């Protein structure tokens, strides 16, 4: 009996394959990883043709999702003719987003060639719709035909010199009286044609009708720097409101920079960077002028 059982077992083994080999119900024709099976007929999950990826694996050959190539190669539905960054695609036919011709910028990228927004040239070059005949800053365009905005129409006034620039344009040697560093002078406003006096509030005003009515001052000059002093009295300073007031001693005196603008005409620049002018409302002297003009010019008449 034992021999008969052994012979039957041998016959059974000869008539069928092992579970891991050959054809079986779960994997007919091969193991799970070999041959053709129901789940992956014609090849394993990673090889050959299968239902999910007929003709190639997920990453190789042609498949339904990416026929003709993988997701990153060849032609596919999303990007036929090339990958997203290569060749021609629906979004950018004829080139990538930055190359060739595309719908958004046919004939060139955003910054190159011809496009709808700027046909014939880039945004900053050549001719475009917005600025025909030139870029925004060059040539002729619709908004500024014939030139740029600074070159068309009525000529603009030249920029007024700032206090720092005025220093280079004006002569630095004041010389109210040549060779005299302690000149006794009368100060006259060129614009108002009035002489400067010290008011009861000790502020300086340009209100005197003639030289005899004007006060006498002494200019203490050092190069193109000068301090102003009432003859026999106090020194002049610029207060915290920029007004000129004669109420201090030598240590508190303001040192002005003097520039000559004409024949015995001078301007005074205070340390705050502004020029001294005559205020319109009350003829008081104040250091608030940005530019040197007629209101900032003074004459110094020597007193013997």
Automatic annotation (TrEMBL):
The lineage of its organism: Bacteria, Bacillati, Bacillota, Clostridia, Peptostreptococcales. InterPro entries: Actin-crosslinking, Fascin-like_dom. Keywords: Actin-binding, Cytoplasm. The keyword Lipoprotein does not apply. Residues 201-299 form the Fascin-like domain. It is found in: Cytoplasm. The keyword Metal-binding does not apply. One of its GO terms (molecular function) is actin filament binding. It comes from the Bacteria. GO terms for cellular component: cytoplasm. Residues 17-121 have a biased composition (Polar residues). SUPFAM superfamilies: Actin-crosslinking proteins. Its main location: cytoplasm. Residues 1-16, 122-146, 163-176 have a biased composition (Low complexity). Residues 1-186 are annotated as: Disordered. This is Actin cross-linking.
């Amino acid at each position: 009996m034992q021999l008969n059982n052994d012979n039957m077992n041998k016959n059974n083994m000869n008539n069928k394959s092992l579970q891991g080999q050959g054809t079986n119900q779960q994997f007919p024709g091969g193991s799970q990883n070999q041959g053709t099976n129901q789940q992956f007929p014609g090849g394993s999950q990673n090889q050959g043709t299968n239902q999910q990826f007929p003709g190639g694996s997920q990453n190789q050959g042609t498949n339904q999702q990416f026929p003709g190539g993988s997701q990153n190669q060849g032609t596919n539905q999303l990007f036929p003719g090339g990958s997203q960054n290569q060749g021609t695609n629906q979004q950018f036919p004829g080139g990538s987003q930055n190359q060739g011709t595309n719908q958004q910028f046919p004939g060139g990228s955003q910054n190159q060639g011809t496009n709808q927004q700027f046909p014939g040239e880039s945004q900053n070059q050549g001719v475009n719709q917005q600025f025909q005949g030139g870029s925004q800053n060059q040539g002729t365009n619709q908004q500024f035909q014939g030139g740029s905005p600074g070159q068309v129409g009525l000529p603009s006034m030249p920029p007024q010199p700032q206090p720092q620039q005025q220093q280079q344009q004006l002569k630095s040697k004041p010389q109210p009286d040549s060779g005299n560093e302690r000149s006794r002078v009368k100060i006259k406003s060129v614009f108002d044609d009035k002489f400067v006096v010290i008011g009861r509030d000790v502020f300086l005003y340009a209100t005197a009708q003639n030289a005899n009515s004007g006060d006498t001052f002494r200019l203490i000059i050092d190069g193109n720097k000068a301090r102003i002093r009432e003859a026999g009295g106090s020194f002049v300073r610029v207060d915290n409101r920029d007004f000129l007031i004669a109420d201090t001693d030598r240590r508190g005196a303001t040192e002005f920079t003097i520039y000559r603008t004409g024949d015995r005409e001078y301007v005074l620049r205070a340390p705050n960077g502004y020029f001294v002018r005559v205020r319109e409302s009350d003829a008081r002297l104040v250091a608030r002028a940005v530019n040197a003009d007629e209101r900032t010019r003074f004459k110094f008449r020597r007193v013997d």
